[in-house]
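Q: What changes when D-glutamic acid is included in the input?
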Amino acid sequence: MKKEYILFIDSGVGGLSTLAETMGLMQANFIYFADNLHSPYGDHTKADIFKYLSKIIKGLLKKFNIKIVVLACNTATTSSIENLRTYFKDIHFIGTEPAIKLASDSGAKNALCLATPTTLEQVRFNKLKSMANGTVRTLSVPSLAMSIENNLLYKKLNFRLQFLKDFHLVCSSAASHDGVILGCTHYSLIKHDLYKTLCLPIFDGNFGVAKQIAKLQKNNSGCNEVRFYFSRKEMGLTQKYRKILSQILANKINVC
Ligand code: DGL
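A: The predicted holo structure follows.
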């Protein structure tokens, strides 16, 4: 029988935070696909994101036995999960969404949700937001996901400066709130820095997503195998992704 894989997709490194959380709960064969040709997704339309995702999934389904696809990206989930479920009827899709419910259940009354511009525009996001018990304010920092990504992949001064600017904007906006809701998997990579700086609860949905995956995938493969694929190939990228994944797993991720 053909080996079974769980497919994770994001525009870049953000979904590694979801994958690491999942690997902490179960063992399986994973494929991680970074659509780096089209990153950031936060700058693209709903129609384009659906087009990119369906092409990636179709291509991988031809080669691999995949039953579960994890959209390890809030932008991909809020814009496309419903259409993907209709299009790929035999696949089980699991999405990542801003942790608004977690914040509500924890009693946050005035939280700030950080997400990409595309996520904040989606009907699915606004429905989720309307279900919160308290007030949820939103903040989009269009360059934040890429400044995190670029810092982790390429150590250059201009990326560092951009990240510091973005981080400062997030912290100054969050200061008047009682919690920060992460609405992009890239932001999970800075959750410890946010917590250390703000001393506020940081709501991250990744653990809930990992629990859903572990519940769905009953057979443990006995080892965690991860294969990496990219829509734009670059020398050494697989090694960089592996290194970032092991840093997240070891709780030693450091963006700056
Ligand atoms: N990691 C992504 C998310 O959760 C997307 C960042 C981007 O490509 O804009 O939304």
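Observations recorded in class: The chain has two domains: 4-96+207-249, 100-205.
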